[in-house]
Known about the structure:
- By secondary structure, this protein is mainly β.
- It has one helix at residues 58-61, and strands spanning 11-16, 50-55, 66-71, 87-89, 94-100, 105-109, 117-122, 138-142, 149-152, 156-161, 166-171, 177-183.
- 2% of the residues lie in helices and 36% in strands.
- The relative contact order is 0.20.
Amino acid sequence: MSNQEVVRRGDIQMTSAGTGIRHAEHQHGDAPAHFLQVWAEPSTGGLTPQYFTRHFSDEDKRDQWAHVVAPVGFPGVIEAREASGPTPTHAPPNLFATLLSPGRALSYTFLARGEMRKRYVQVPQTSGHNLKDAEGARVRILGAEEGPIELREGDGAYVFAVSGDVLKFENVGDRVAEVLLFDMDSSE
Length: 188
């Protein structure tokens, strides 16, 4: 069986290899492809191979957190091919995304899970391929145990937090900053 799909801006595709799949990725057209690929180990073994694609528009993310990936069993997660809501996964991370306008700030309260855990923040590089130091968007993170953190486009950082901790994300640059926040259920 062959399924072909063109993934576009705002699409999130979850592929579960489960007990085994054949998979290939190809660039569609002549324009350079630019995407983020994230791998997560499933919480359960022996799953049936499947994939889901969800679309989150720029408006869904503009100056607000969009819950774009969540574990199966999390409230509001529908494990069906043609459904809305967060992209279902059999792995622990919850992923939130925003497009933060210049001069704007947005807070995030970590999900209730108890002890100190490592979380991850990524500011994807949206200005195109660049081998030099990060440029473009700049985001300052306040409230982290580590003190203020400033990330530029292409940067990422681990942040340690307990449930209920609040981080404030400020766009201190001159362009829209895309921010991904992985609220992981892992201390690793």
